[in-house]
Amino acid sequence: MTPDLAVTLAGLRLANPVLAASGTFGAGREAAAFLDLKALGGVIVKSMTLTPWSGKPTPRMCETPSGMLNAIGIQNKGVEHFLAEDLPWLSAQDATVVASIAGNSVDEFVKVAHRIEAANTSLAAVELNISCPNLEDRNHIFAHSASATAEVVRSVKAVLRSKPVFAKLSPNVTSIPLIAESALEAGADGLSLINTVFGMAVDVSTRRPKLAGGMGGLSGPAIRPIAVRAVHEVHRLWPHVPIIGQGGVQTATDALELIMAGASAVAVGTANFVDPGACPKVAGGIRDYMAAGGVGDVAELVGCLKLEG
Amino acid sequence: MSPSLVAAGVFSHKKYGENYHALALVAPGIGAQVEPGQFINVSCGPNRDFILRRPFSIFRVHEQGSAPSTIEIVFDLRGPGTRQLAAMHIHDKIDVMGPLGVGFSIPQRKAKCLLVGGGVGAAPLFFLGDRLRKDGHRIDVVLGARNADHLLNAMDLRRMASVCNLTTEDGSAGARGRVTDVLADTMDGCGTEVVYACGPDPMLAAVARICMEKKVFVQVAVEELMACGYGVCMTCVMPLRERRSKGASAGRSVVYARTCTEGPVFNGAQVIWSSGHEHVAQDQSELSLGGGAVRAGLQPEAGAGHGPPGN
Ligand SMILES: Cc1cc2nc3c(=O)[nH]c(=O)nc-3n(C[C@H](O)[C@H](O)[C@H](O)COP(=O)(O)OP(=O)(O)OC[C@H]3O[C@@H](n4cnc5c(N)ncnc54)[C@H](O)[C@@H]3O)c2cc1C
Ligand SMILES: Cc1cc2nc3c(=O)[nH]c(=O)nc-3n(C[C@H](O)[C@H](O)[C@H](O)COP(=O)(O)O)c2cc1C
Ligand code: FES
User: Domain total for chain B?
Assistant: First the structure.
């Protein structure tokens, strides 16, 4: 029996459950030197904004135990560049593509969503990176407020009718289920859990933060237990909501932790920096695990976590 | 040539002076293709505490007859990665990604080239010097370091250079002071037409300033913090001045270029240098005035200072 790795999340069909996480794979071009993009379940491209963003000053990263802090500031060339250059190229590689939208106001999210809808492309789904400051609300991060999260999701869903929309939630809140609930009520088709964990590091010789922006987002194996917990918390309450689990996945075992906690698919982020071929390797490891255990369909593993007995 | 992942074998492990370790690696594919100024990104071992690769310039390339060329890197001990590399023995395997980045451009016609290096940052000048000499260019050198023991393999540079000026901050070899103290005189004396510089940012900034004053073309190889080394993460950027000739965005603008893929070698006149956080705000305001690719999108409120982090 060959295990079936294909999964479908709210209409998003993936040949295997392992995607590249937004911001860690560009738009696939550079990684294509190392692997065939068809081997990935999908590519979630770097978050795009209405107009090009230049990003934050440097230094933008520092390494921390089993992870790294980053403060890039969503440097990207904008939605028009994505539609004109990146998406046609990705489609020519036969890659399954998920767009990631970011913005500093609800209106910016909506305008990007509108462009994507109007372009009527082969895009498979859209992820909303709502871990962005809302300039219209004293820079409060959308994903940190249930009402701001709902407003973005509802407004985007109103214009983006043809693609499944995943709201990517931040772990930096008192209750992830509370934000998840409002995203789902506002019409999110699925959730991505989690974005980076806010952190900070200090250079004691200069007494300055190691990142020019002060704080940054922690990623890598250090945050995996937080991601597993977040997926578990949400899946327990809404077992039918598709979740793309992400945070610290390096190996198939890491991915299986998230899947057993309730993720229907996983995204690999920081591990791509070390090995551009990480996604297909993780998928291969999941296949091996299934073959060894006689698991025919990866869906059997989703949320299979045993809590009692 | 596009990069690949290679399981390289350690061919030799030498020391230069007290401080520098050199590893020669058998890396078929990389050795045959690599250009001066390019680098490799090295996985320093299966350590889950620090996961990222470490970037190193190609110090030298050795022809092994018809066998695959070996590539050599040289480094000093900084932290866990370099400590682990320093413990490598002959025949050990190292996971290497490369060749990466855009290297130095080589003059089309015969030129008088000056190579300027500081500390271990001088590493790529050796490979570059070999190439320039093979192509028949004149080479002069200014090499600097903290003290005599930190001058990287000055003997080899002396051999390839017509003029080789050394500087040390403590005066233990060559002139007391920094490379920039002797740079202008060396350029005048040698009739320098092209300058190649590698080393710490403040040194590169000073070298670029002197070259611009003298209207001499200067290429710099920078070392920025890199998470991926192959162009996907946007951590390694450097602000560059760009001249745009077309349309509404004509004029000067500033772009954040990836040093791992658009560099690490840049035209020194284009780089906007900042030696610390106090200059960052200034860069940022220049960026906000910039046109072209970044003009419309800059969000100073979201980008500057201690605002909320954003990937
Ligand atoms: C293009 C390029 C070429 C380089 N070539 C050389 C070389 O030929 N010889 C050499 O000795 N060093 C070189 N460096 C610097 C070298 O990468 C660092 O010394 C090394 O990463 C330190 O790792 P560590 O774990 O020992 O130190 P740590 O201080 O523990 O490193 C922690 C983190 O900081 C990064 N880092 C630390 N210092 C630097 C630096 N100066 N530049 C970039 N990243 C840094 C590391 O990659 C790592 O992610 C180069 C850097 C770049 C970007
Ligand atoms: C350098 C870097 C850039 C990122 N950029 C984005 C981004 O543009 N949009 C987004 O939604 N997430 C971004 N992320 C977050 C990742 O997509 C991912 O959710 C997070 O890093 C956790 O996964 P990991 O631990 O496997 O990296 C970025 C992460 C890193 C490390
Ligand atoms: S180091 Fe990742 S883009 Fe340059």
Answer: 2
Q: Which domain holds residue A269?
A: 7-54+73-197+219-301
Q: Is B201 left (phi over 0), alpha (psi -120 to 50) or beta?
A: alpha
Q: For residue B183, which of B220, B143, B145 has the smallest C-alpha distance?
A: B143
Rounded to the nearest 10°, the torsion over CA B194, B195, B196, B202 is -150
ipTM for the complex shown:
0.95
A56-to-A87, A291, B112, B301, B310 alpha-carbon distances in Å: 25, 46, 39, 10, 9
How many CB atoms are closer than 10 A to CB A268?
Answer: 28
Task: Select from A220, A57, A63, A196 the least CA-distant residue to A132.
Answer: A196
- Same-domain status, B91 and B61: yes
Tell me whether residues B233 and A30 touch, CB distance under 8 A.
no
Helix residue spans in chain A (DSSP H) = 79-81, 87-92, 106-119, 146-159, 176-185, 224-237, 252-261, 271-274, 278-293
Which ligand is closest in space to the CA of residue A64?
Answer: 1
Q: Tell me the torsion sign for CA atoms A47, A50, A52, A53.
A: negative
Cβ A213 vs Cβ A57: under 8 Å: yes
| Number of other CB atoms surrounding residue B276 within 10 Å | 11
CA torsion through residues B77, B80, B82, B83, sign: positive
Q: How far is ligand 3, taken at its centre, from the CA of residue A56, in Å?
A: 14
Strand, coil or helix: B102: strand
Residue B289 in this model has a pLDDT that exceeds 90: no
Residue reference for tokens 């030129």 = B111
Host domain of residue B187:
112-295
Q: Please answer whether residues A303 and A42 qualify as being in contact, where contact means their C-beta atoms are separated by less than 8 angstroms.
A: no
pTM of the model: 0.93
Is residue B24 included in any domain, yes or no? yes
Give the contacts of B227 (CB within 8 A, at least 6 positions apart): A61, A68, A70, A270, A273, B52, B233, B235, B236
Instruction: Of B138, B253, B270, B262, give the one whose Cα is nearest residue B204.
Output: B270
List pLDDT tens digits, range A121-167.
Answer: 889 999 999 998 888 888 899 999 999 999 999 999 999 999 999 99
Yes or no: say if B53 and B43 are a contact pair by the CB < 8 Å rule.
Answer: yes
CATH code (residue A180): 3.20.20.70
Dihedral of CA atoms A126, A52, A156, A215 in degrees, nearest 10, equals: 80
Please tell me which of the candidates B232, B256, B297 has its beta carbon nearest to residue A30.
B232
In a domain, A294, yes or no: yes
CA–CA gap between residue A56 and residue A39 (Å, rounded):
33
Task: For residue B307, give both structure tokens.
Answer: 């605002």
Whether B228 maps to a domain, the answer reads yes
Residues B159 and B271 in one domain: yes
Indicate the number of domains in chain A. 1
Dihedrals φ, ψ of B181, to 5°? -70, -30
Given A54, A132, A275, which is nearest B298 (Cβ)? A54
Smallest-distance ligand from the CA of A272: 2
The runs of H, that is alpha helices, within chain B are 30-33, 80-86, 124-134, 154-160, 179-190, 201-213, 277-289, 292-295, 300-303
Same domain, B135 and B17: no
Is residue A279 among the annotated active site residues?
no
Give A-chain residues touching B297 at CB under 8 angstroms: 49-54, 78
Do B96 and B175 reside in the same domain of the chain?
no
Q: Is residue B93 part of a domain?
A: yes
Render pLDDT for B220-259 as a digit per residue (tens, 0 to 9): 999 999 999 999 999 999 999 987 666 555 566 889 999 9
